[in-house]
Amino acid sequence: MDLLRFFTAGNVDDGKSTLIGRLLYDSESISTDVIETLTRQSKNTGEHAAIDLALLTDGLRAEREQGITIDVAYKYFSTQKRKFIIADTPGHAQYTRNMFTGASTAQLAIILVDARNGITDQTKRHSIISAVLGIPRVLVCINKMDLVEYREDRFKEIVSDYRSFAELIGLRAVDFIPASALNGDNVVHTSSNLSWYKGLPLLSYLETVEVDQFNGADEARFQVQYVIRPQTEALHDYRGYAGSVLSGAFSVGDQVTVLPSGLTSKIATIESNLKEVPSAVKNQPVVLHLEDDLDISRGNTIVLSSALPATEKEIEATICWMDNHAFQPGHKLLLQQNSFRTKAAIREIRSKIDIHSFRDLESDGELKLNELAKVHLKLAEAISYDAFEKQAKTGAFILINENTNNTVAAGVIH
């Protein structure tokens, strides 16, 4: 069964929590005990007529807001047609880093717009981050249509405004759905209130939207997490390379290249669950054995020799600064890409990105919390990567403060 990862973003009070709650409730993805709890909590807040669906996510959010930062809440549900993972990201501008994190693995963005307010700076901010991360498809859910009397002309006005902005920032594909999450119009079921809308309701859209375009590059990529060398009498010559297939597939007999060294060999055997298998596919944890005894260590990348990624010591990237302390030149950093780690330095902040207008701003040499910037990085060891828009797993990384071990930035490679 297909898996679709998507994130939701919108202004505070645009109805994001209610939309997710309605989606889960009307699709019968909530257990009976949770419904009973929601009913009880709703009555406690004086809402006797109906369940407060926003409590499904607001309960989590209230807990998160008690901490130092607000994290990303994830919800999992499935229908007979598809499995889903929802990343519910905070709406406040000061939590850009959380949205950047939640959106980085998404295949689809759902951006909520209040039908009364139309396109706002927050809408633009969320859209720009989607563009920076190369999200393949954006769904603009124009919510609270009940508060504008379900007017088709208001829907079309917002669609026109958003299309103009989407063209400016280069969003690939944008769809639009009018809805009222509070009343359930067009979330799981179609509504007579929106009879002029001939498209699918939200759930049907999510179940049927094409995912092939989200797969990106499918070249075979494997990164070594652990080198297995028991060195016992029974397994004296055993040397295996454990990890998960990041993308594509590997088969016994494939000609492979180990990066960054560039050494070549062939796959002798593949182990999965202590058994030899003829091949391995994306996300499958395996142990690879090569015909030649090569010097391979944790973080090295094994790829098919016929489809090599880039391997460089200097890269161009877009990063989101996540540390409460501003970046200062001379910061000692570590770059982590899956199991690969090396020392890194930001040699130049090329420009900052205005997250409301998508314009490049002149760099002042500093990076503050939640700022986005295009940077030039120099690494102690060469990194093997694909451009993020082609392969997210090898095109994304984090930066770590070498002294404190705190994650200070997340980035994507161009």
Provide an overview of this structure.
The protein has eight helices and 23 strands. It has 414 residues and is an alpha+beta fold. It has three domains: 3-214, Rossmann fold; 221-304, Elongation Factor Tu (Ef-tu), domain 3 (Beta Barrel), CATH 2.40.30.10; 310-413, Beta Barrel (Elongation Factor Tu (Ef-tu), domain 3). β11 (255-259) and β12 (263-272) form a beta hairpin. The chain is globular, with a radius of gyration of 24 Å. The protein starts with a strand and ends with a strand. The relative contact order is 0.11.
Q: What is the CATH homology-level superfamily of the largest domain?
A: P-loop containing nucleotide triphosphate hydrolases
Low-confidence stretches: 59-70
Mean pLDDT: 85
Biggest sheet descriptor = 6 strands, mixed
CATH class of the largest domain: Alpha Beta
Strand order of the largest sheet: 2-3-1-4-5-6
CATH topology of the largest domain: Rossmann fold
What overall geometry do the principal axes of the alpha carbons give?
Answer: globular
Our estimate of the beta-strand percent is: 35-45%
Distance between the termini: 31 Å
Beta strands, count: 23
Amount of helix? 10-25%
The figure for the number of domains is 3
Radius of gyration: 24 Å
Record the SSE blueprint.
Elements: E1 3-9, H1 16-26, H2 32-44, H3 55-65, E2 73-78, E3 83-88, H4 96-103, E4 108-114, H5 121-132, E5 137-143, H6 152-169, E6 174-178, H7 202-208, E7 221-223, E8 226-228, E9 240-247, E10 249-251, E11 255-259, E12 263-272, E13 275-277, E14 279-281, E15 285-290, E16 301-304, E17 310-321, E18 333-337, E19 340-353, E20 360-361, E21 372-385, H8 392-395, E22 396-401, E23 407-413
